[in-house]
Amino acid sequence: MTMDGGLERLVRILHDFCMCPPPPENPTLLYGLSSPSSQPSKLVPTLNPKSFDKQAAYRFSLAFQCVVNIGVRGSEPIRSRVVQAGTLDVVGCILEAWLAN
Questions:
Q1: Alpha-carbon span 24 to 28, nearest angstrom
Q2: The overall pTM is greater than 0.90
């Protein structure tokens, strides 16, 4: 996982959710009922939004658990890779959101 880019993908999932949690999923997008000309709006970075997509929150939670387990149970070189992948930025974002709340 530390060699094939999987760790970086997990950290990217965490970082994207921290910076800008997606809004609740629009059912018309899910079922293909929106017009072809409609473009999804660009998401604005938001700290602690009022509502967000539950499925994205579940993905965030699972990715966070994976990174924590890799970081805690891994050897010294693996823990170094976890830090190199950018996990400290994500932890800082989580703490910032917690303090703001």
A1: 12
A2: no
